[in-house]
């Protein structure tokens, strides 16, 4: 720690989401010395690191704190960090409105066939939809699996456009924007009557392959799956099989087992699949929201309190 206080490094990987200079600007008057990093090993003199990715060099450094600009920290070795006495925080909670807007966009694309019209533009194809192809969201049911910040960002928007909202969470505590609550052991029952199933759960051993062949078979054949959680939450091979067999109507996927999605993935070729590049939470306000979390934790460090969004 310098005489001026905590020294915080900004890892160049944050440029995946925003320019490092933007975060430095947002932290300009914070009680911290902010330094740019040239690479993984550039940790000399740093007390903390803000990063998009994990590097083994972080364990070898004399760090007190790592802040991940993502909500998901499955790439970080939690046990190793805990043993090293390095606190890890994430950016959970900053994505709710952005992800909620994105999911609503997916639902509207499918309901109004906007993705089909867009695909027709390069060929200058002018085709009015068949009478049964389009529908409105009002009165349709969406089942949101995972009711944290992301999930409630979806449920509030779905309720706002007149949808019936079901939700799945471990504790059946009532939520104003959810009409019917289910626990995870009733997942197949929860998805059975939904036109849309939206996944917003974190990836863990409990949620890995949460949606597989059985869950997809339980969905309606006119239902759509939306995954803005993590790729590992869905058995991707089972999903491709269900889509190609017409067992479900389509899918909007922002996350995948392998990212970027490989060129040879059949998901690229399916008209009833919307592929986005893990960008559901993208917003021009991202750096400012991360900076707000960092500021809060700087205050907590000063006061000797536990950190907001602390994972280990």
From TrEMBL:
InterPro entries xref list: D-isomer_2_OHA_DH_cat_dom (IPR006139), D-isomer_DH_CS (IPR029753), D-isomer_DH_NAD-bd (IPR006140), Dhydh_Halo (IPR054891), NAD(P)-bd_dom_sf (IPR036291)
Domain D-isomer specific 2-hydroxyacid dehydrogenase NAD-binding as annotated: residue spans: 105-280
Enzyme class: oxidoreductase
GO terms for MF: oxidoreductase activity
Sorted UniProt keywords: NAD, Oxidoreductase
EC number(s) stated in the UniProt entry for this protein: 1.1.1.-
Domain of life: Archaea
Keyword Oxidoreductase: yes
Coiled-coil residues: none
Domain called D-isomer specific 2-hydroxyacid dehydrogenase catalytic: residue spans: 53-311
Family listed: Belongs to the D-isomer specific 2-hydroxyacid dehydrogenase family.
Protein name as it appears in the record: D-2-hydroxyacid dehydrogenase
Gene expressing this chain: ddh
